[in-house]
């Protein structure tokens, strides 16, 4: 069994590696199109686009991936507060505004995951999402500016990384911590377990 991660995210790569997966990294170059407005639907739509893009353009007809079964893993993560979707901030000002809105409140983190591949000659397409509630302590403007000025906000949905310096402002989590990092690795494993022949999934370990 071969696995391909359709993402350049070092956090997703680290989570897969920690879980024992051996995989190639082929980031998707697809131009994302959002046609949904419900957060769970949005992340599943984007994950589907990424996984299918890599599978169709780089894997499906590539001889290097024809000798074994192969699954491409696409993922997308967003932050949502009261139904408003917060992606990656465009600049420090937008990052500050996002974090100011989330401070002293509970928001949701959604990650969508799609498997696209071929198993025993049959095409596999499977999509799911995971949701985690995250609550922040009140955060002073000074602390927000310090964090935003560090540059850590700009490549992260919702303008923060829970595994980094902003962790000191996280009051509580309800759900999967790894989902907030960027990949619900336990759910991913069990979803694979539900769709793959039992002898296949263990090839990753």
From TrEMBL:
An example Gene Ontology molecular-function term: hydrolase activity
Location of the active site: 76 (proton acceptor)
Catalytic activity: dTTP + H2O = dTMP + diphosphate + H(+); UTP + H2O = UMP + diphosphate + H(+)
Keywords annotated in UniProt: Cytoplasm, Hydrolase, Nucleotide metabolism
Cofactor: a divalent metal cation
A Pfam family the protein falls into: Maf
KW Cell division (keyword) present: no
Chief site of localization: cytoplasm
Protein's cellular compartments: Cytoplasm
Keyword Cytoplasm attached: yes
E.C. designation(s): 3.6.1.9
Site description Important for substrate specificity, residues in chain: 11, 77, 163
Signal peptide range: none
Superkingdom as given in the UniProt entry: Bacteria
NCBIfam families for this protein: maf
Family according to the record: Belongs to the Maf family. YhdE subfamily.
Function, in words: Nucleoside triphosphate pyrophosphatase that hydrolyzes dTTP and UTP. May have a dual role in cell division arrest and in preventing the incorporation of modified nucleotides into cellular nucleic acids.
Protein name: dTTP/UTP pyrophosphatase
